[in-house]
Amino acid sequence: MILDLIRKRRSVFPAQYNDKPIAKADIEKVLEAANWAPNHKKTEPWRFKVMTGETKEKLGLFLSLKYMENVADPKQMKAKKLIENPKMAGAIIAICMQRDPKESLPEWEEIAATSMAVQNMWLCCTEMGIGSYWSSPPLVKFMDEFFEMEPGEKCLGFFYMGHFDGELPEGTREPIEDKVVWAD
Ligand SMILES: Cc1cc2nc3c(=O)[nH]c(=O)nc-3n(C[C@H](O)[C@H](O)[C@H](O)COP(=O)(O)O)c2cc1C
């Protein structure tokens, strides 16, 4: 039942990942799932940059450098974490959004469609037993210096993936009744 999978989906963070590599075929499956997200006017605005191997380490060094250069009172601990987290991941997929050049849609619709693609990825990972989460550090605004981006393309964060050991905790949510008005 899809509801069980939806409820089972959790954010699984780099500290929880083990060393088992992510198979390329699994990354391809996740990307294929992303590609079936709904989108308005067929703009298919999601764009992804898949980072594995050395590129993950380079990403960590880049983010740490940008943090040190741009934050008023940088903390050594945070800078170290920015280097360590990407190393722990099996793969990191930069989540990008390509605004339709004709701007036929408001930007939020393109971000919404990209977010739906991410949910597809996250659920696909859940089913495959791969840990994942969406990381959205403010440092993403510098990502056009890390890889080539098209005009109108924006980085919205990183989709971290990693195998993990053990069980995940159940999630918690406030009741849906508190968020719904029925108009009969
Ligand atoms: C758009 C978006 C951005 C997020 N950014 C971060 C982030 O930067 N750091 C983080 O720890 N979690 C981030 N998360 C994950 C949330 O913390 C997580 O989904 C929430 O705590 C609920 O936990 P669950 O995913 O296990 O249900 C993000 C989630 C979304 C949807």
Automatic annotation (TrEMBL):
The keyword Amino-acid biosynthesis does not apply. It holds the Pfam family Nitroreductase. Residues 6-163 form the Nitroreductase domain. Its cofactor is FMN. The keyword Transferase does not apply. It comes from the Bacteria. InterPro entries: NAD(P)H_nitroreductase, Nitroreductase, Nitroreductase-like, YdjA-like. Its EC number is 1.-.-.-. It is an enzyme of class 1 (oxidoreductase). Keywords: Flavoprotein, FMN, NAD, NADP, Oxidoreductase. Belongs to the nitroreductase family. This is Putative NAD(P)H nitroreductase.
